[in-house]
């Protein structure tokens, strides 16, 4: 059966597959095929494919039905995928092991299954994990055409925030000067640099900085990112360029760093301030804290955005705030 396919050079196949999947236009009912150096990725809607891609009608085989964990368990388990690691949040250890076994026996390309064994805690916002299948807690996670190596036992990373990160990154312009105050392994900093911005990425976790530097090389943005290990409050004075944009993704305690953010801000600067507050007033505390810190600036709240539900009656939110001296 002929179906519309995006044709790309084989070397660009994985990058293209990810881009099409991110846009929701990849046809999962048909196989991706390779012929004479070209890769053909079936698509569901040619009109939704970005300009610049070549589209051809092509005979491609139907994809064999995949076996999912729910097919083996008789119920639909909840899990997250992070690279080739599957993450569970199960309190019942026997149920968790059943799910892990089903994941490994399914069509999911997983090498490790982990079940959370603690809350996020400590200076570096990490958690403990029970290894139910496989061995390694290291993986490479792909998100919006970027690849991030990480160890889930050593650094904080949430795949649930991919859409939020993309929302913020899309606001940046080429040649902006950006400071990511709590950079982790680079999920904000590296896409910013990919858009042409100059980025200073700071984190106190030495393991996160090590992975960040690896990811900078992996994504070929070496010339546009400076990775600094340390407390941003202690190194701010050494940052020479005033920032056009600052990311403050440290919910629960970002307010303690607002004086430093104002110190880093240029005459006009956008703050992306993340907070966790009660649903009755999710944005007010953050807005008031920023206004109190930003004396000498005119402040405009451009976006009040709910990222996700964090806990019963608590929301993880973001304020996009423009400051003008």
Automatic annotation (TrEMBL):
Residues that span the membrane, as ranges: none
Gene Ontology biological process: tRNA N1-guanine methylation
Keyword S-adenosyl-L-methionine part of the UniProt annotation: yes
Coiled-coil boundaries: none
InterPro entries in alphabetical order: MeTrfase_TRM5/TYW2, SAM-dependent_MTases_sf, TRM5-TYW2-like_MTfase, TRM5/TYW2-like_N, Trm5a/b_N
CDD domains listed in its UniProt record: AdoMet_MTases
Keyword vocabulary terms for this entry: Cytoplasm, Methyltransferase, S-adenosyl-L-methionine, Transferase, tRNA processing
Annotated ranges, domain SAM-dependent methyltransferase TRM5/TYW2-type: 79-325
Gene Ontology cellular-component annotations: cytoplasm
GO MF terms, alphabetically ordered: tRNA methyltransferase activity
Matches recorded under Pfam families: TRM5-TYW2_MTfase, Trm5_N, TYW2_N_2
Name of this protein: SAM-dependent methyltransferase TRM5/TYW2-type domain-containing protein
Organism: Halococcus saccharolyticus DSM 5350
Biological classification of the source: Archaea, Methanobacteriati, Methanobacteriota, Stenosarchaea group, Halobacteria
